[in-house]
UniProtKB/TrEMBL annotation:
Its cofactor is Mg(2+). It comes from Arabidopsis arenosa (Sand rock-cress). Homotetramer. Catalyzes the phosphorylation of D-fructose 6-phosphate to fructose 1,6-bisphosphate by ATP, the first committing step of glycolysis. This is ATP-dependent 6-phosphofructokinase. Belongs to the phosphofructokinase type A (PFKA) family. PPi-dependent PFK group II subfamily. Atypical ATP-dependent clade 'X' sub-subfamily. Keywords: Allosteric enzyme, ATP-binding, Cytoplasm, Glycolysis, Kinase, Magnesium, Metal-binding, Nucleotide-binding, Transferase.
Length: 472
């Protein structure tokens, strides 16, 4: 027998054997008599051959799938997908889509598939694009979106709607949603954007508006928790191979050649880690989560010297957020600049560490170092085939959820199943590489690099975190 646990902004349902459902808000929470309509999908030719195409109301997905015989069933999330009844009539819908934050491969595919899903599956005709991120709600005209305007956009990188950082004024945004009569808001963005979505949802609830807010997580860094991975990540790892291959060619073409590649990863080093594991030509991978030092026994310079003596060349991959502490120490005044959204503005660690390596070895050996920075080339390309499928299923899941009356959720893959995740779980922390995890051990064993850690630090509690959510 399940019971709901009263909590101001959380819908927790408990069940036998430690079952917990962290549910998402629904229109009927505030509008119990909200009219419902048969899902038009039942008359849709594409679905009519599929026997069970509506998701069962009790379908939920476990957050943890590695369990013991006596493990409590633990946290579950509501499964995504179409329901028997919908809470919007097609002609009543005025939907809008906004893209926020940094670019990521697949943004246009998500936009395209939200428009196609609303149009083809639910017969919705009125869909607006918000120009240039959150500030576009109140500072710009809207962009008309229909099947024709989005038909080919998935072939281009970036976002046809434009994006921005900063400019999130909750009152002005919700005023604009209310004045325009918008009743569905699809927000495609990273950790910052999802926090912004939560603030918008809270204001909409406070005003008692019948408006659905859905987040689609976008993070090339993979710094959003709970979800298996973000769209665009696979494309980024694949594209990074080209830079790593170039670095390997340069490094092997000169005596004591070093190819150094900087990849995205402000706080989380997933791209650097997976690009290194995919390449097998990388001798050293440096990420923000794994501190390292340059001089002395066990330091980076000692390892470079050893590896060059062994093979005469070396490839180093460094995430842009790695080593920022070392760089800051070397500067007279400590500058912690932030971008318009409050994210840390990084110094170019690739340039700095390249110069430090050249200076260190200048009097010791003939060394040729080539520094490659493909960061923006990687995030500005269109998504690959795998990510296009990921974008399509994410977008369709978001549309199904909103039409079924769910609200205040971020859609995401959890253990290979699409789910609706409450905003507070998405925004409560950032997803980071846990260097005491087996995945990082696989990385170290693939490059044979040292951990650059002093033994006493490796097992201190500051390093042991929850296992990362990468499900690969
Ligand atoms: N805590 C927050 N509350 C409300 N809006 C936020 C918050 N953090 C970021 N935002 C807004 O979300 C948008 C995107 O955030 P940003 O961090 O730049 O990129 P991303 O969402 O990709 O991580 C920006 O317009 C920013 O102003
Ligand atoms: O777009 P900017 O301001 O150059 O920011 C670069 C940052 O954007 C990212 O590509 C993605 O960051 P967001 O998730 O905040 O959009 C980071 O990897 C990188 O550090
Ligand atoms: Mg972010």
């Amino acid at each position: 027998m399940s019971s709901s646990v009263p909590n101001s902004d959380r819908k927790i349902v408990t069940g036998p054997a430690g079952y917990i459902l962290e549910d998402v808000p629904h229109f009927t929470d505030d509008f119990p008599d909200h009219p419902t309509y048969p899902n038009p999908l039942q008359d849709n030719a594409a679905y009519s051959v599929v026997k069970q195409y509506f998701v069962d109301e009790d379908d939920t997905v476990p957050q943890k799938i590695v369990v013991h015989p006596d493990s409590p069933r633990g946290t579950h999330f509501r499964r995504a997908g179409p329901r028997q009844r919908v809470y919007f009539e097609p002609d009543d819908v005025l939907a809008c889509i906004v893209t926020c934050g940094g670019l990521c491969p697949g943004l246009n595919t998500v936009i395209r598939e939200i428009v196609c899903g609303l149009s083809y599956m639910y017969g919705v005709k009125r869909i607006l694009g918000i120009d240039g991120g959150y500030r576009g709600f109140y500072a710009r005209n809207t962009i008309h979106l229909d099947l024709k305007t989005v038909n080919d956009i998935h072939r281009s990188g970036g976002t046809i709607l434009g994006t921005s950082r900063g400019g999130h004024d909750t009152t002005k945004i919700v005023d604009s949603i209310q004045d325009r009569g918008i009743n569905q808001v699809y927000i495609i963005g990273g950790d910052g954007s999802q926090k912004g979505a939560a603030a918008i949802f809270k204001e909409i609830k406070k005003r008692g508006l019948k408006v659905a807010v859905a987040g689609i997580p976008k993070t090339i860094d993979n710094d959003i928790p709970i979800i298996d991975r973000s769209f665009g990540f696979d494309t980024a790892v694949e594209e990074a191979q080209r830079a790593i291959n170039a670095a390997h060619v340069e490094a092997t073409s000169f005596e004591n050649g070093i190819g150094l590649v900087k990849l995205m990863g402000r706080y989380s080093g997933f791209i650097a880690m997976y690009a290194t594991l995919a390449s097998r030509d990388v001798d050293c991978c440096l990420i923000p989560e794994s501190p390292f030092f340059l001089e002395g026994p066990g330091g980076l310079f000692e390892f470079i010297d050893k590896r060059l003596k062994e093979s005469g060349h070396m490839v180093i991959v460094i995430a842009e957020g790695a080593g920022q502490d070392l760089l800051a120490e070397s500067m007279e005044e400590s500058t912690t600049l932030k971008d318009a959204s409050g994210n840390k503005l990084l110094q170019d660690i690739g340039l700095w560490i390249s110069q430090r390596i050249k200076d260190h070895f200048a009097k010791k050996m003939t060394l040729t170092l080539k520094y490659i920075d493909p960061t923006y080339m990687i995030r500005a390309i269109p998504s690959n085939a795998s990510d296009n499928v990921c974008c399509t299923l994410l977008a369709q899941s978001a549309v199904h959820g909103v039409m079924a009356g769910y609200n205040g959720f971020t859609v995401g893959l959890v253990n290979g199943r699409h789910t609706y995740i409450p905003f507070y779980r998405i925004t409560e922390k950032q997803n980071k590489v846990v260097i005491t995890d087996r995945m990082w051990a696989r990385l170290l064993s693939s490059t044979n690099q040292p951990s650059f850690m002093k033994q006493d630090k490796i097992h201190s509690n500051q390093l042991v975190g929850e296992p990362g959510t990468m499900k690969w």
